[in-house]
Amino acid sequence: MSLFQTNAWQKAWWAEWADTPGATLVSEGGNGRSGLYVHGYRHGLPVKTQCMQYVGTSYRKFSAPRTEYNTLGHLNDLPAVLTELEQAQWTEAVFSDLKSESEEQQMMQSWARKHGWLLREIYQDVAYGIAATGAFEDYLGTLGKNTRLKLFNRRKMFESLGDVAEENFWPYRAKEFFELLNGFHEVRWGSPCFSHRSVAFHLDFLGRAAADEIHPLLMVLHIDQRPVSVLYNALFRGCVYNIQAGFDENFHRKIALGTLHLGYSIESAIRDPSVQYFDLLAGEGKNTNYKVNLATDQESLVTFMIVRNRLFELLYRTKDAITRLKRKAR
């Protein structure tokens, strides 16, 4: 079970977005399972779209924090779950960010083919992680020269610039932490990292964390008491999940501050005997895919759609055919 299928994450997410117009819960998530809901809306079509998807995901209509490693639960329970889903009212189902080529994916796609429903692959991605069971020095030895420089070797330069300290802002300064995170993102990306609703969700999730034995790590790196970098991590069942990061990109031209701060966090995880893995999750950086240079492991993720409404099937087949023709014409 990942962090994203805990009661804390699943219930906090649904509590925040349950009032979305047209959204109806199909099954609750938690205890190792992603919940499901149906979102009914019009998408410029004569027939209303009834899109079933995981709790924690939103296809098309609104933005929410990403939920990865989605699953419908134990494989032994999956046939019964899929039979239940046949009774729900949906025109299409979008299953996002589940492990690619897994037995679960194969069972779900076989279920769709058995019923003659259209299968469409929407997106592929890769989640990156670091095995945290060896020595930190051994991990450094696996890195390329430039990556090792950014992650570790620039520490002396950084620490020579002032008094360096790191502090966990959980639980008493959590709101301040998200203000710092959003502030760094506004400068770097031109917009905040999290919307007001997303911040509310994260605060709710963190407030529920203790019940699931999740340990929030809202790490703030200071130099001369000035915050210059933040890491939003959470420790759950021996895995540190790196959910988000932000930093002062104008701090120093020779110091990659975000990577440097990750280096402190990765070292702490590897030196902690209770931690076995540091999960960088999916997604890339602004300029480069820095995660691929840090990772020791990769996990392929896939998002696919099942369409069981015949009109929608015709529309999607037409759309896909046009897309293929455009690609050939390039």
What do you see in this structure?
The structure is a single chain. The protein has helices at residues 7-17, 78-85, 103-114, 136-142, 145-153, 155-159, 174-189, 196-208, 257-271, 290-294, 310-329, and strands spanning 23-27, 36-41, 49-54, 92-99, 118-131, 164-168, 215-223, 226-236, 239-247, 277-282, 297-307. The protein is an alpha+beta fold and 330 residues long. The chain has an eleven-stranded mixed sheet with strand order 1-2-3-4-11-5-10-9-8-7-6, sandwiched between helices. The longest helix has 20 residues, at 310-329. It is globular, with a radius of gyration of 22 Å. The protein starts with 6 loop residues before the first helix and ends with a helix.
Task: Estimate the mean pLDDT confidence.
Answer: 96
- Total helix count? 11
Order of helices and strands: HEEEHEHEHHHEHHEEEHEHEH
What is the percent of helical residues? Answer: 25-40%
Instruction: Estimate the global geometry from the Cα principal axes.
Output: globular
- With strands numbered from the N-terminus, the spatial order across the biggest sheet is 1-2-3-4-11-5-10-9-8-7-6
Distance, first to last CA: 43 Å
Largest sheet: 11 strands, mixed
Q: Over all CA atoms, what is the radius of gyration?
A: 22 Å
The helix-and-strand class reads alpha+beta
Brief synopsis:
The protein is α+β, with helices and mostly antiparallel strands. The protein has helices at residues 7-17, 78-85, 103-114, 136-142, 145-153, 155-159, 174-189, 196-208, 257-271, 290-294, 310-329, and strands spanning 23-27, 36-41, 49-54, 92-99, 118-131, 164-168, 215-223, 226-236, 239-247, 277-282, 297-307.
